[in-house]
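Sample intake sheet
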Amino acid sequence: NNKNHSVALGSSILALVPWQRCLAYRTLPKMVAMDVANGEPRGALPKAALVLLALASSLQRGLGPGSVLLPLVGAAILPGAAAFASTGTCGAVKEFYKGEDCCGEPGQQLSGDTPLWADGGTGVCACERMRNSLAGLPGAMFPENLCADLAHLKPVGWRHAPICEASDAGSDASLLRDGEAGNLNFPHGRLKVLATVGEINERTGAMLTGVPDGNGAYLLNDKTVRYIYQSESYGPLSRQESLPFFVNGPERVSLTGSHIHYIDFDRGKLAEFMKDGAPVNAYSMVVDSGEAIETIYNLKREKIGKRSRTSAASSSPHHSNVNLSGEYIVVKTPTKADWLMQSLCSAHLAIKHQWGSGLGVEDKLFITNEEWISYVDSATGLIGLPVHVLNLESKELYAISTFSLGGHEKVVNVNTGSTDFVGFVPSGYNGNFGGNGLPQVVASRNEQYNRTDGNPYVWPQDIVPTRLYVGKKRADKDGNLDNTGFLARNGFEHGALYGFATDCSAGTPGAEGRDKWHKSTAAAGDKVHGAFYRLRWRDEPGTVR
């Protein structure tokens, strides 16, 4: 327990001096703080206190008026504590006391199954007392609404009111209660909430971020369903930055913007959740939650490093943020992190051999993509936006250029009918990079080569055919046998990308135009005749160009 911890949160520094586990019974008239390690009462400022130091310089740099500092810290104070479904009633205290065999044994140490309702899951046993006790420490600054805001932090699965509603509440007073659901009379059946953005893991303090987008689920083991979702967030480009997540071990490279989270549910309880008499919220069936990414590799297959603050170029960058020289070229720079994981949108979760023996990918994976970004108008040497493939077992995320680097909405795994090949269908966008159309980039391309029809290239935003990728499984980039590399094993290293083309002569759907034909002319059962042709794009795994 006696370790020093320092956690970057927002643009403030949360420093934890050596701590010991703390238990506070809120149901008692006078709050009692106890050191669980030895059962002795502690004073207002124990020698092993939980300290939150928000450095003034950091506050001035990153937090504006009305900003909230969310101390997601002390849930780690309760490692291994079992989930406790009570909300902190007197009966819960009694049952806990009896369960620990404390009767007549006031000096007995607790077993470690500390009830998480004792501190609300935040790890701060008595916020006002903590703030008052530490207010005189040099450099200590606390937002005015710290304790009120802290009270809003709830464990994953706690809230049960859905955001969606079956109708507009209008002036119906019964549907206008703050914090409660609106009309739940959905025409398709009942809806219940599994988790809400902003809820935290009460053991680790890890917060769920939003807005939720691409998602999937699989059996982690016989008793647990693991739900994977990504948050579509835009870092400094729009609204506020999300809290950072950290990767690549001791180096603690940080990223704001989009996260990929996991939430583990008890399989048996999840199966009963929609039945009459089931708990109103999902809290009792949440087993675990957290960040699904621990390691990130860039397009060069290097672990990404920290963004350089002293020179223009970074040596091991997150490639969507930089040009070929490693220079940061996004219009806004993160204030809370090294890099921006920009707008992970839709996604696809594929399990091993989902269509039968040998058919499909060879590992459980989650495939996602950065869809758009805003580069400075003067940007040159663009790399673009990779697709990212997450190994769900190892929590390693790989940036790939397999499907081009124009930015994508979604990449879907499809059945090739072959045990030797995989198929993926990537969907738009293409070149949604902001700015003024980046004419200098188009000019640079045309200096190198023109289109196959002899005409010059133009900026291609949102102009892209329906595409199909076919990749050879268990093959390295040269087509040689490789059953050890994750990307090679699953067909991402050696393959080809094809685009659909159709006749555009007079009287054809192609001549009318795709959107207009589908909207005005097409009838059920109509077909568009064409073929998939290999695109000029050539992927070179491990190379950035």
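Comment: The longest strand covers residues 212-221. Residues 1-87 have pLDDT under 50 and may be disordered.
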